[in-house]
Amino acid sequence: AQKITQTQPGMFVQEKEAVTLDCTYDTSDQSYGLFWYKQPSSGEMIFLIYQGSYDEQNATEGRYSLNFQKARKSANLVISASQLGDSAMYFCAMREGLEHRTGGFKTIFGAGTRLFVKA
Amino acid sequence: DARVTQTPRHKVTEMGQEVTMRCQPILGHNTVFWYRQTMMQGLELLAYFRNRAPLDDSGMPKDRFSAEMPDATLATLKIQPSEPRDSAVYFCASALQGTITEAFFGQGTRLTVV
After folding, report:
1. pLDDT tens digits, B55-75
2. Nearest neighbour of B43 by CB, restricted to A91, A98, A103
3. Which of A46, A112, A116, B24 could form a disulfide with A38 if both were Cys (CB 3.0 to 4.6 A apart)?
């Protein structure tokens, strides 16, 4: 069974500093994708970054990077140089299977971490 | 600007009434997800479709919820009869099978059942 765990309900970070949001996952599938989404107070879900289970390098997108440790089954999000606009809920998600699998493509989400950026 | 469109954005209804939420996926996307978000349960996957066929609706209460895709440009989620515990934000998301990419979310329908 799939499971995503985000152990930090809330995090505070000083503006311009880096912050790491934790995510661990559990799957028996060898092929999967890991995602991070941001949900600001307006409510929409914004895709941030993706990491495939076979990707050898950690994914990066601007100020976002994903610290992928496959053996530990962790996929932590690192936000560098935090900005006030980064204050939001952050969700880690996993999608099991790749296109060659039938019946795959199911995505589940963790409980989220609320990030507060202090001025 | 390709986006997932959900209607209505807000819905207040009385207990026992039927509620229908609609979703227009991004043109060309063949996978559609329905999620429900509450404070207590977070984001729950209710159902998802590929090429209009339901692949998994195990997260959906079968007695009152139903999800369909009448055509490739419309997905619907229906609750009949609605109950106060159904109050939540319902998100639709779409994706394209065969590409390792994110699912694009709509802005959600905020449902309040009184």
Report:
1. 888 889 889 999 999 999 999
2. A91
3. A46
